[in-house]
Amino acid sequence: MSDTRRRALVTGGSGDLGGAICMQLAAAGLHVIVHANSNHDRAEAVAARIRETGGDAEAVAFDVADGNASRSAIEQLLASGPIQVVVNNAGIHDDAPMAGMSEAQWKRVIDVSLHGFFHVTQPLLLPMARTRWGRIVSVSSVAAVLGNRGQTNYAAAKAALHGATKSLAREMASRGITANVVAPGVIAGRMAQQTFTEDAIRQMVPAARAGRPEEVAALVTFLCSEAAGYINGQVIGIDGGMS
Question: How many Å separate Cα 111 from the centre of its chain?
Answer without folding.
Answer: 15
